Amino acid sequence: MGILRIMMLPKIQLLAVLAFGVAMLLIENQIQKLDESRAKLERTIARHEVAEVEQRHSEYGGGRELPPIVENDDTVIIYNRVPKTASTSFTNIAYDLCGKNRFHVLHINTTKNNPVMSLQDQVRFVRNVTSWREMKPGFYHGPSFPVIPLISRLRLVSYYYFLRFGDDYRPGLRRRKQGDKKTFDECVSSGGSDCAPEKLWLQIPFFCGHHSECWNAGSRWALEQAKYNLVNEYLLVGVTEELEDFIMILEAALPRFFKGATDLYRSGKKSHLRKTTEKKPPTKETIAKLQQSNIWKIENEFYEFALEQFQFVRAHAVREKDGELFVLAQSFFYEKIYPKVN
Question: Which residues, if any, are the signal sequence (predicted)?
């Protein structure tokens, strides 16, 4: 009897394994059916949303042809908002275009506008952007995220007065330094901390990344890392002083999102949308004193690097005729395609 039990045991185990395998196949089959059902539902919802957009477009008399629907359009653009660089003007253009060009715009609002994300929030954000199909194609804007940022040389003075007087975008909002009437020149002359370059004109950290050294003001390592990232990790980096050219190049490169952006900017409705109140330009003496700072020198070197790179990109993207800029037509084509197709 003992021998019989020993001989029967392997057969029972084999049957158990087979039963488990069949159960797994059934489960996988059900999962596949659920995925297919979800995909059909998402397509139905997407078509419904598009129909609503078309209806609103016709109601408001848009008049322009809407871009064609592309199945599974997973394009995502992330705009790195560096403070006081015309970022509000640019994002409002995206908000004006999103209904007509059929994409979503999402503002990434970090606690206290902290430009550094915790490691767990970085994982959450990547997971959200990857899996949130209902928001694709999408345009995300917020601090410390790469693809298409703007930088500005005028940020130092502008931000100083912004903290005291605000701007014309939300004039009723009380600012952190409201009531302080000291001019920027007076602050620099007295050696005040509020006008120190490390407090106001740091743009390198926004391009350097999440390494601790990136936030050490005046770091040569951070500067070189920011330069590397600007060239290798960003689609395009513009400068506020040449905002129209930046928008024109984006429209040429990414018409799926920015078709009509140049005309919208030139119409004046969104150009220079946000202006700092009570801003007084600094004197030559103030500028000369600031330029002695090592932090200013490194930040200015980065600005000059970004400007040179932008001008290089622009030179190969547009041409000038009679004082007007025009986007260059496609300059490549395919030939010698083998094997031949009958």
Answer: none
